[in-house]
Amino acid sequence: MKIDIISIFPDYFAPLSLSLVGKAIAKGIIDVDVHDLRTWTHDRHHTTDDTPYGGGAGMVMKPEPWGEALDHVEATADGPLTVIIPTPAGRPFTQATAYELAAKSQLVFACGRYEGIDQRVIDHCHDRYETLELSLGDYVLNGGEVATLAMVEAIVRLVPGVIGNPRSLLEESHSDGQDALLEYPNYTKPPLWRGRSVPEILLSGNHAAIAAWRREQATARTRARRPELLTD
Ligand SMILES: Nc1ccccc1-c1cnco1
Question: C-alpha angle with apex 144: 132 to 78, nearest 5 degrees?
Fold first, then answer.
């Protein structure tokens, strides 16, 4: 999988060289290119935004740099592009979205600032590429960079070969393997910590009983915290 990220803050993505994504890059499973949008500005101040038509607070990202940046990514692509535009106005990014995007060959993340990218760029993307406008949740960020970091991690860990033990993906919160229940509580050594013990069932060695207890815990936790996820 190839991932292109276009941003005016390319340094935001230095963490991608760490941990899981870094290992996937080192294994050659994914390739990440971060592009500085200002590369495609042609004025002395490398201007990427301007005041909004119609007035209002804040600034809007100009279309020209975006058009040239996307042209560059397209010209250097091996196959079809899937463009992801993080935005508070997008549809929710969910685990199902992550699985869908983990199957794509090339993802392009267009990181805009909060006031947004000129709508004509977004319309251009919808006309020319598979394009998804996605939101992480109903809160305000200053730009798409943080959302992109989260989405890249959620997507890359699902790409075959990235996670050592694929079985572990089946038992996570929101994974299909658990019928999208929240994850059950987890424990490890020591058996007693600050007067707190581990549920006896987990020490029993009775795997069927442990699986049943974990499902009960996952269902109870989901009912308490996210009742809308329960389909029964
Ligand atoms: N608030 C934002 C501002 C700019 C780009 C994305 C977002 C966003 C994405 N998910 C929630 O917020």
Answer: 50
* Closest C-alpha to ligand 1, atom 2: 141
Among 135, 138, 148, the mutation site with the greatest number of ligand 1 atoms within 8 A of its Cβ is: 135
Distance 198 CA to ligand 1 centre (A): 40
Kindly report, residue by residue over 55-103, the tens digit of the pLDDT.
999 999 999 999 999 999 999 999 999 999 999 999 999 999 999 999 9
Structural domain including 197 reads 166-229
Contact 111, 145 (CB under 8 A): yes
What CATH number is attached to the domain comprising 179? 1.10.1270.20
Whichever domain contains 88, its CATH number is: 3.40.1280.10
**Average pLDDT of the segment spanning 167-182:** 72
- Angstrom CA distances, 208 to 50, 215, 219, stand at 62, 11, 17
Residues with CB under 6 A from ligand 1: 86-88, 112, 114, 135-137, 140-141, 143-144, 147
Q: Is the ipTM of this complex over 0.90?
A: yes
pTM given for the model = 0.93
Provide the domain count of the chain: 2
Across 152-197, the runs of DSSP E, i.e. the strands, are 192-193, 196-197
| Same domain assignment for residues 204 and 99 | no
Q: Quick one: pLDDT at residue 167?
A: 79
The answer to whether residues 113 and 138 touch, using CB atoms and an 8 Å cutoff, is: no
